[in-house]
Known about the structure:
By secondary structure, the chain is α+β, with helices and mostly antiparallel strands.
Amino acid sequence: MKTRNKGYRNEYLLAQRLIEMGFKGERVPLSGQGWGQGDLRFKFGSKYRTCEVKAYSSKFFEYDLLDKSDIVFKRTTGNQCSKDWLVIMPIKLFAELVT
């Protein structure tokens, strides 16, 4: 399957899942054109948020960590690290926390 088709399929599937969970939003048309507008726009809390969707065929090690924890916090380390923490959690837990 071409990367573009895989990306569209996963964007569509995630958008449908979020809508089924009661969130308002949509897939951004032509999101793969690289205009920096994200793949999805959904309302979480009181604001619409831009969402980037990534799906990989290989297993993330974070899945193993989520077998032992509810939430995984991740960031790069080193002298030049100025990036904030990333939060990784199952979508059901995310929905519980933002609704």
